[in-house]
Structure formats: structure tokens, C-alpha cells
Amino acid sequence: MALGAEKYVSATTYRRSGDPVATATWIVPLEGGRYGFWTSSRSGKYKRLRNNPAITVQPSDARGRVRSGSSPVAGTAELVSSGADFDAIQRQVRAKYGVQVPISKFFNTLGHLGKGKFPYGDVGVVITPTGSPPS
Q1: 96-102: long-range contacts (C-beta < 8 A, 24 or more apart)?
Q2: Do 24 and 8 form a contact (C-beta atoms < 8 A)?
Q3: pTM of the complete model
Q4: pLDDT, one tens digit for every residue, the chain (135 residues)
Q5: CA-CA distance, 50 to 89, in Å (whole number)?
Q6: What secondary structure letter does DSSP report for 41?
């Protein structure tokens, strides 16, 4: 199965120290063999990618447990907040995940009550595969 057809992937980003942080996320295919997902401009994932664009994605379940027998795909992430790639990610996530989007947004809002504004899906992450993951 192509990575963009997966329902969830475990996306591994890297702290400044180099320590990996894996989180489950949705994923959609983009033109040119690239992939995309959205995140919040206030999330740790966004901050890690802003500092280091290296990313590894691998098919997983909703909790981020990687699928047995699947292979990780290394890539470089580009953060976008407007333009064709951003619009494609927004459109495709809404089409692919349907009713899960407003439900997810509701729980995101609930989880951040009293913590100030926490935007939902305001940044697109465009992944360009580069080959083998870092060892």
C-alpha cells in the first residue's frame, strides 16, 4: 500500500538534542511523490520541524504503533501556511478523513481549554522522501 493511502503514520521528528519524537498523524498524497499532513503552529511537532526539517514516517495505528513488516521512509519537511500545497493538504485531509476532522478539532479545543489560543491545522507539512531513514 502506498504511504499516502495509509490512514495513520508515525511521524518522527527530532529535538535539538537529536532525540527522536514519534507522533501519530494523518497523511495524504501530494503531487510529485510527496506527502502531506497538517499540524498546529503551536505544536511541538511544528517547533521541531522548524528547527530541523528531517522527518521519518512509517505506517502505524492511531496510537502511533508502527505496523509490523512496514518500512520507514525518510524525508525532508517543508512547513507551508498558504499556497497550492497548503490548499491541497487542507482539501485532501477533509476529503479523506471526513467527519473525523470536526471531531478531532473539538477534542483539540477541549484539550487546550484555559491554555490560550491553539490553532488547529493551520500549518501544512510537505514531506519530500529522501530515501533511507537515519540510523
Answers
A1: 96/26, 96/28, 97/26
A2: yes
A3: 0.83
A4: 588 889 999 999 999 999 999 999 999 999 999 999 989 888 889 999 999 999 999 999 988 999 999 999 999 999 999 999 999 999 988 888 877 766 777 666 666 566 666 677 789 999 999 965 544
A5: 18
A6: T
Residue the block writes with cell 476532522 = 101
Residue ranges of domains in the chain, CATH in brackets: 3-112+119-131 (2.30.110.10)
Residue 22 backbone dihedrals phi, psi, to 5 degrees = -100, 135
Tracing cell 527522536 back to the chain, one arrives at 20
Which residue type does 61 have?
Answer: D
Q: Which residue has the cell 502505524?
A: 60
Please give the Cα distance from 89 to 135 (Å, whole number). 29
